[in-house]
Amino acid sequence: MPQVLVLNASYEPLGVVPIRRALILLLNDKAVSLEDSDALMRSATHAIPAPSVVRLKRFVRVPYRGAVPLTRRALFARDGGRCAYCGAVATSVDHVIPRSRGGAHAWDNVVAACRSCNHIKADRQVAELGWRLRHKPGPPSGLAWRIIGTGHRDPRWLPYLQPYGADDALARIEGRSSA
């Protein structure tokens, strides 16, 4: 099902919702559509262009937002879908310092890896193999990562995410996935 970017009244990205939820916000006059997708949503009497980006009419106070959650999808987005060791297409998650040796399951210890590198590395540390990481792992920052980490991306969202670090994030993703 298509996803819709929801912006606060201040144009700050809040999250991604299903198109059905976005339509309910529009029909209840709680949001306005800023960008429409190519699809039409039809009922017996109306045809409404399906939104791609909606902005809430009233400002919603957002409680403190912690760090970006560590999910497989967000990790692959951060690493551009490429192996942190050899640059091949990543298919698995690897702990730089293995958990069996006290490594944590945290952003600065987890990287995307191809099956081959993950299998060869096993429960050894990178230095033991003489390998180097292509980039230092760390937590992604910026509001755009909350959206990019969901794995849902629409080119129409980019102008609304650019002020919140989307250019850097997407450049890293696109740059690595074309390597």
UniProtKB/TrEMBL annotation:
<dbReference type="GO" id="GO:0004519">
    <property type="term" value="F:endonuclease activity"/>
</dbReference>
<dbReference type="GO" id="GO:0003676">
    <property type="term" value="F:nucleic acid binding"/>
</dbReference>
<feature type="domain" description="HNH nuclease">
    <location>
        <begin position="70"/>
        <end position="119"/>
    </location>
</feature>
<dbReference type="InterPro" id="IPR002711">
    <property type="entry name" value="HNH"/>
</dbReference>
<keyword id="KW-0378">Hydrolase</keyword>
<dbReference type="InterPro" id="IPR003615">
    <property type="entry name" value="HNH_nuc"/>
</dbReference>
<dbReference type="GO" id="GO:0008270">
    <property type="term" value="F:zinc ion binding"/>
</dbReference>
<dbReference type="Pfam" id="PF01844">
    <property type="entry name" value="HNH"/>
</dbReference>
<protein>
    <submittedName>
        <fullName>5-methylcytosine-specific restriction endonuclease McrA</fullName>
    </submittedName>
</protein>
<keyword id="KW-0540">Nuclease</keyword>
<dbReference type="InterPro" id="IPR052892">
    <property type="entry name" value="NA-targeting_endonuclease"/>
</dbReference>
<keyword id="KW-0255">Endonuclease</keyword>
